[in-house]
Design goal:
heterotetramer; A: 408 residues; alpha/beta; Aspartate Aminotransferase, domain 2; seven-stranded mixed beta sheet; 14 helices; globular; B: 141 residues; mainly alpha; Sufe protein. Chain: A; two-stranded antiparallel ribbon; 6 helices; 2 strands; binds pyridoxal-5'-phosphate
Chain lengths: 408, 141, 408, 141
């Protein structure tokens, strides 16, 4: 059964927005953040209007309702990701999740000379924490290059880089190229040499049903806001035996067992890594988002988004001067289509597209090493999601063609 | 053949709770029952091992078989409401065969009108306690 | 002009809540988290329904609107706290703010043997990070005791502890006792010996207009959710010359200037400490909260809340068996009234109060060293705020008396 | 005595922009003007010092006085829309006395119909650029 995209669109209040320039919004900036269905917004409003309260140690009704909602969100979200609540640590997003691996696991488990393998395709969030750890601890960071013809990871170079690796950090799906990496192969090979694996699924989670226990990665980082959830929340999924080897990162209330002036003992498991007042509204919103997403078969969502991206890239390639980065013809490629015009500078192009109501992202997309590998300072990127339509893509291509004709 | 949901000797206790005018009266009764615990576990015997997790306050349970092979649940809590629930539970299960305890359900708390006057996590605390007793009994079978 | 508390109450949808037990909600758990006025909830809804987009590098209208709203929130909030946007770093709350001082300042600036002075009155959020730093760096943590008669800080002991201090961390207002510490004196004395000062204003900010530049503290930690704002956001205020001496904490996108496989350079100022997708909705909500709070004179708010607390404690003291921790007669004391009954255990008491619709907090309030000093494992705590009324306090005292009579 | 908001020789430029049918036409014109920059700053001369911050794209401005003490603004940007705005700005200010530049206001962009077709942060970028020119002129007074 195909997705009923029109019905889906009705769930999103923002999609009927008309921009100040009179054009209806065409939102193609989904890789930056997705829009939110009404049920997600409503779930948060309902929390604030009906049972807002600090959670835990719940000795009054509101606190109890808030605690229940928070824990029920944890159950929903972890089960959506194919794992147990015990394996999920709430963070503020994928960035904090990766920093948590750096501070809470790597800092305690890696020594000078240990090797961390990352790729040229990583988002800064999966590069800078490792560079910083390298400065602090003397670990070695190796970058697996990409093949700039196929835009895929150079797996031969990966095999070589793996020698002596203790941690492999790979983006599941590139936010720039839309390329999905062969994460299954990467996990198998990394484990074979005794390395742990962190997958950055910030882009993967909105496009594929992440099944943590089945995938067998050691860590998975996810942001809610890219998958219909609110800003300010995300999670790190961690295998139990790996979590047992983690030490405290941020400390304070909730994560403790007993605090005295002589020292403190900590909670075990995910509770050790969640301190301070929880992101209650955000967790509830994200829970509503996975409930909403559960209405759909993610394979169909992927097929829909992939078809839009593939169709868009095919039509865009026909426009003189347009160059595509990535390979949207690959069936596992996601909804991100990066492109440049050979004479219209990317910022100018973005402004001219915006003039037609088309929201695309422009810049280095927090992936400067990838830009360096591609030999460009930035790209324009149209990225599609569940509520985008073929008609939107058609009008986008038409407007793009018009701009290219007129401004080059 | 349907079996009873709770042992016969609990009937008068349940009736007493059912007769309560409101939740305040029920809580008052729980306070009274907390003092009547048939097999209390004194604080000296509270350990990490016998602690029931997921309760708001501290709760500890030790289960054993008496000389005649009958189930004995000893329990202690620092809050009287919890202690009262433990007390009623002990009245229910003490002296039963462990098989019987292991297949018991927590319906008596519903019948007492207690469970739906508890907020969800307090109800969970009670269920954790009950589940602890049930699973200890299972191990003895 | 006195506060129009009835008008204020109308701004809060939750205050008309009737609990499942049939009682109208009486919310006395404000020190844990405050309720949110409708304008705050609406500001976030409007963001999600009208212009949700990732901020920065804003090359399309939505991104531009979101960026403007985010920056305008930063301007509003920093100016509400009497300082410049440059001196404010968004965090997820006071807990993260204090951890940021530990990781981003203390880790770079303190050495083995350096002294950090904290107090017995601190929240765990202002204890455990220093204990952890002490383990990592060998700094010494000294605890200033409280006088258990007056419930105030032992300032003579403070003077002694100050010797050799490099950092003094003090809670502005105790979340348990309601006591406001002599922060002005503490700042002067600390600076006189060359020590930096961190004030934990999680409880101070909802009760007093924090004027960062005037107060002259080096760091101030604040949570939005205790001052009418949403969950998941807060800030650290930092003096410029101190910020210049800070190094990176969490790393990733946004906080960088240039990332290459050879290494990275970072943004300067607050931007270095804010990485990943911003908490956009949360910032906008908090901005709306300070707009709302700006309608009132915080001196009047304090007077109102203080009067309720003072009145409540006087009436409660008349009940047999009730003991108050703190001194709500002090005119600078805030809205928190901690108490215990000598025979009804605190959990039981909380449940029986909840039975009447009264939401109070019960437990160690993330202040176990203070509980140890007071010689109790926990307290019940009623904490009042701007929308609470004398009638609510009266009915609370009546219900408390009824419980004490009936259950002891 | 009211002074003009922009120098007379800018009038035909502004008129040209005012004649545009829509914003697309205006952008097209800006593209054209970007190629007509009277005093471009070539990329080799782009430095951290002359970079204008707060623009979406890279923009660099160097201001100086020519031999006869008249203001000269050289500018470069990697985006043509920004370069077009710089170009018009240079046309406005080049050859003026620095006092005059230092007291100028950015109204010409309003008159051109440009500023309100810019989203707020692009408008800010333009204002940052303009402010840079104005304050450099001030230093020369
Ligand atoms: C005095 C004090 N400090 C710090 C905190 C921690 O604040 P948050 O949980 O919002 O990070 C709290 C609130 O719980 C507090 O009351
Ligand atoms: C691949 C990838 N990793 C990490 C991130 C960081 O996510 P966040 O900014 O939500 O922390 C992003 C999004 O910007 C991303 O696309």
């Amino acid at each position: 059964m195909a997705l009923d995209v029109n019905a889906i669109r009705n769930d999103f209040p923002i999609l009927s927005r008309v921009l100040p320039n009179g054009h209806p919004l065409v939102y193609f900036d989904n890789a930056a953040t997705s829009q939110k269905p009404k049920c997600v917004i409503d779930a948060m409003t309902q929390y604030y209007e009906q049972y807002n309260s600090n959670a835990h140690r719940a000795n009054h009704t509101l606190a109890d309702e808030a605690t229940q909602a928070l824990e029920s969100a944890r159950n929903k979200i972890s089960s959506y990701f194919g794992t147990n609540p015990e394996n999920m640590i709430y963070t503020s997003g994928a960035t904090e999740a990766i920093n948590l691996v750096a501070y809470g696991w790597a800092r305690y488990n890696l020594q000078k000379g240990d090797v961390i393998v990352i790729t040229e395709m990583e988002h800064h969030a999966d590069i800078v924490p490792w560079q910083e750890l390298s400065k602090e601890k003397g670990v070695e960071v190796r970058y697996v290059p990409i093949n700039t013809e196929s835009f895929t990871l150079d797996m031969e170079a990966f095999d070589v880089a793996l020698d002596g690796a203790k941690l492999v950090c790979v983006v599941h799906t590139s936010n720039v190229l839309g390329i999905r990496n062969p994460v299954e192969e990467i996990i198998l090979k990394s484990h074979a040499v005794g390395s742990r694996v962190l997958l950055d699924c910030a882009q993967g989670a909105p496009h594929e049903r992440i099944s943590f226990d089945n995938m067998d990665a050691d860590f998975i980082a996810i942001s809610a806001h890219k998958m219909a959830g609110p800003t300010g929340i995300g999670c790190l999924l961690v295998k139990s035996d790996v979590m047992d080897k983690m030490g405290p990162f941020m400390t304070g209330g909730s994560m403790i067992r007993r605090v005295t002036t002589d020292g403190s003992t900590f909670q075990e498991g995910h509770a050790m890594f969640e301190t301070g007042t929880p992101r209650i509204a955000e967790a509830i919103g994200w829970g509503a988002a996975v409930d909403w997403l559960s209405n759909f078969d993610m394979k169909e969502v992927h097929a829909h988004v992939h078809n839009l991206a593939h169709f868009a890239s095919q039509e865009m390639s026909k426009i003189n001067g347009i160059r595509i980065f990535g390979d949207p013809s690959r069936s596992d490629s996601s909804g991100a289509v990066s492109f440049l015009h050979d004479s219209i500078q990317s910022q100018d192009l973005a402004i001219l597209l915006d003039e037609g109501g088309f929201a695309v992202r422009t810049g280095h997309h927090c992936a400067q090493p990838l830009m360096d590998a591609l030999g460009v300072p930035s790209t324009n990127r149209a990225s599609f999601w569940i509520y985008n339509t073929e008609e939107e893509v058609e009008s986008f291509v038409k407007h793009l063609r018009y701009i290219c004709d007129r401004f080059s | 053949m349907t079996s009873r949901l709770w042992p016969e000797h609990l009937d008068p206790v349940i009736a007493e709770f059912q007769d309560c005018f409101d939740s305040m009266e029920r809580y008052e009764l729980l306070f009274e029952y907390s003092a009547k615990h048939p097999s209390p576990l004194p604080p000296e015997e509270w350990t990490d091992e016998n602690q029931v997790h997921g309760c708001q306050s501290r709760a500890h349970i030790e289960c054993s078989l008496d000389s005649s092979g009958r189930f004995l649940m000893r329990g202690g809590a620092d809050a009287q409401i919890v202690q009262g629930l433990m007390s009623v539970t002990a009245m229910a299960v003490n002296g039963m065969k462990p098989e019987r305890v292991s297949s018991m359900s927590p319906e008596y708390a519903d019948a007492m009108g207690i469970r739906n006057s508890l907020t969800p996590s307090r109800a969970n605390g009670f269920l954790n306690m009950f589940e602890r007793v049930r699973s200890e009994a299972e191990k003895m079978v």
